[in-house]
Design a protein that fits this description.
heterodimer, A: mainly alpha, D-Maltodextrin-Binding Protein, domain 2, 4-stranded mixed sheet, two-stranded antiparallel ribbon, 16 helices, 67% helix, elongated, B: alpha/beta, Rossmann fold, 6-stranded mixed sheet, 9 helices, 10 strands
Chain lengths: 426, 250
């Protein structure tokens, strides 16, 4: 125990005296988390909160045009513009504006669209009621033009076109109901029983969107909830650089050689490092979460919500800290030079973070990458924090992730011991 | 010389993985208790490899070593308790002060509390480092670092002290202090095994020397015996050159 305490003290002193190293460990991740969250929050808002910019030309000036415009506005997935550069939008201006990249999507509802639908529906109703010859031809179909900027994501385009289809179908049904009601009121003598507002009554299925969260109240996924845990985990794993660096330095400076001639286990020396760097990881995480809690709201960003389970956060934090430290020890054991340690460590953490969903959430990745992401310990930790922060999960919900991270720590330590033994058998 | 060997090396050989030639080949030596034994040789002769094997840093490819009556194979932890090692490199932490470095290494040898503190102060005083003891090693001169490097190897009063070129790159004053204290340690009963390129220093300091070249021990004896047995040689350096020749070594 005395040896372990001495090893911890030595490691802590060396770390505390390395001011540049401390800045890299604590200050840089805080700046990173701040900048990345601001950037991603803006992107997040433009696509989800403000919506994609759509320019709309309503040549119809009747139910269909009004209904589509109202529907798009109410959908919340877009910002609807009726003018271009301060002038009322026309079809020609719209096409040019979209091709110039001013808008991602442009929609033109042609003149007389509602009237065409109305006439066709009337014809259909009258044919159904046998008042008109069923062979009489319907008017030509209407054509709603949708202009698309090639950079528009397929998913957004699909959302817009399916919404348009929905609005058209709705207005068509509405007109049909009205026409049927009018025709039936002619046939039924007791007009009191004629269904009033029949269309509104036909809306028997309603939708309610609720984020699947286990906690009371609703946490809306936002850039802060995603980015703070993601970048905090990234920072924790980035301790691989100073940790591996200090191990290689000890080897190169001869301290390891001297320590190998002392009756002290390799594990005691390594445990000294592990204790100190786990502590560093936990301080890092606390600082990162504080940024989400106090600093980011000062810049108009949402406040980080910690969910319901403080114990869950503690368990997951320790598991992540162990995994990150174990990985650093393994890199420090394998690397022969500081350059090797720095390159291997930083590149592998960048790779793990990229595939693990730190840079881009895994749900927007292609299926192949989503399948690969499960090999990243950063992904296990991130999913655990999502479980706590977004879904309001508890200890039971993060035990799987924590167990995987602890097993990863054991694996990296085993590899370190084996490599160390192998290197000494030269 | 009393026949009381503390180290017995029999047919020791070491070939590193990937190397075509052995670094040490069929070395046999006996080192007596309380002697100052010099292992001399040109660069790459096999001195450091031999000492590294004796310290348990890596196993030999063949041969056997007995230290203080214990076979190296299977007793390495016990042997590490009775040996002290002063490596050629300054194997200390530059970001720590002298006292912090010694405190750490002392604890690693199982020392603690007042006994450790007293030893640290004693040696810092003896080597003229007490005043600078709270300064970081990075601010030390080469000679100060060498002295501290030596203290870290003797804090636990080892029975056997291995020194790999302990005076390389130091000024005359530091060298004198180091050699004087090593002689005192030896008088107190510590067996000293020492490697150096300084033939003059070895001639004055060592009770017995062995000259190693290309992994082989080519001669051993007291400096006086070696000088007498090599015709035309007036000192150990001329014996060394006579035996190892003037070809440059890497």
């Amino acid at each position: 125990m005395i040896k372990l305490l001495a090893a911890i003290k030595k490691e802590a002193l060396i770390l505390l005296r390395d001011r540049v190293g401390l800045a890299v460990l604590f200050l840089m991740p805080m700046i990173l988390i701040f900048v990345m969250t601001l950037i991603q929050d803006s992107a997040f808002k433009s696509l989800n909160e403000r919506g994609i910019p759509i320019v709309f030309v309503d040549n119809d000036k009747d139910s269909l045009g009004i209904s589509i415009a109202q529907g798009l506005l109410n959908s919340g997935m877009c910002t609807l513009n009726f003018s271009i550069d301060g002038k009322p939008a026309t079809s020609e201006m719209l096409e040019k504006a979209v091709s110039d990249g001013k808008f991602l999507v442009g929609v033109v509802v042609p003149k007389g669209a509602t009237e065409t639908i109305r006439n066709n529906v009337k014809l259909l109703v009258n044919q159904t009621l046998g008042e008109i010859d069923s062979l009489q031809k319907q008017s030509d179909s209407i054509e709603i033009s949708i202009f698309i900027d090639p950079i528009t994501k397929k998913s957004f385009l699909t959302s817009v076109t399916s919404s348009l289809r929905e609005f058209i179908s709705e207005i068509k049904t509405k007109i049909m109901f009205q026409t049927f009601s009018e025709e039936l009121s002619e046939l039924i003598p007791d007009k009191k029983n004629t269904p009033k507002n029949a269309f509104a009554q036909s809306q028997i299925i309603k939708y309610k969107e609720v984020y699947a969260s286990k906690q009371i109240g609703e946490i809306v996924p936002n850039a802060v909830q995603h980015n703070v845990p993601a970048w905090a985990i990234f920072a924790m794993f980035f301790i691989v650089l100073p940790l591996a660096g200090s191990m290689v330095k000890e080897k190169n400076e001869g301290s390891v050689l001297r320590l190998q001639t002392i009756p002290t286990s390799f594990l005691i020396l390594i445990n000294g490092k592990i204790v100190v760097y786990i502590f560093v990881c936990l301080i890092q995480l606390a600082l990162m979460l504080s940024v989400g809690l106090f600093l980011l709201p000062m810049f108009g960003l949402p406040t980080l919500n910690f969910g319901n389970s403080f114990s869950g956060i503690i368990i997951l934090s320790f598991a992540t800290a162990f995994a990150a430290t174990g990985y650093g020890v393994m890199m420090g054991t394998i690397a022969s030079t500081e350059q090797q340690g720095a390159i291997m460590g930083s590149l592998s953490v960048l790779l793990f973070s990229a595939i693990g969903g730190v840079w881009v959430p895994t749900y927007v990745m292609p299926e192949l990458m989503r399948n690969i992401s499960i090999v990243s310990p950063l992904n296990w930790s991130l999913n655990g924090f999502y479980e706590l922060f977004l879904r309001g999960g508890g200890i039971a919900d993060v035990l799987g992730a924590a167990l995987k991270l602890f097993l990863f720590f054991l694996l990296t330590m085993s590899v370190s011991i084996i490599v160390n033994k192998f290197k000494r058998k030269i | 010389m009393a026949n009381n060997p503390i180290i017995k090396i029999c047919s020791l050989s070491k070939t590193f993985v990937g190397a075509s030639d052995p670094a040490v080949r069929d070395v046999s030596l006996t080192i007596e208790t309380s002697e100052i034994f010099g292992l001399l040789g040109p660069n790459g002769a096999g001195k450091t490899t031999t000492i590294s094997i004796l310290c348990g840093l890596f196993p030999p490819s063949s041969g056997s070593v007995t230290i203080d009556g214990m076979s190296l194979d299977g007793n390495i932890d016990h042997i590490k308790q009775i040996i002290g090692v002063v490596p050629q490199d300054i194997a200390l932490y530059p970001m720590l002060t002298a006292r912090e470095n010694l405190n750490f290494y002392g604890h690693m040898y199982g020392l603690s509390g007042k006994p450790l503190k007293d030893k640290i102060e004693l040696w810092l005083n003896n080597f003229g480092l007490a005043e600078a003891g709270n300064n970081r090693l990075s601010s030390y001169s080469g000679g100060m670092k060498r002295r501290l490097n030596l203290i870290a190897g003797i804090l636990h009063d080892p029975k056997i002290l291995f020194l790999d070129e302990p005076t390389v790159g130091v000024d005359v004053q530091s060298r004198a202090v180091i050699i004087d204290h090593l002689k005192e340690l030896n008088k107190a009963g510590t067996t000293v095994i020492y490697t150096s390129h300084h033939m003059e220093e070895a001639e004055l300091f060592c009770s017995r020397v062995a000259i190693i070249d290309n992994g082989n021990i080519i001669v051993e004896g007291t400096p006086k015996q070696l000088i007498e047995n090599n015709e035309g040689c007036s000192n150990l350096e001329s014996v060394f050159l006579n035996l190892t020749k003037r070809k440059l070594r890497d």
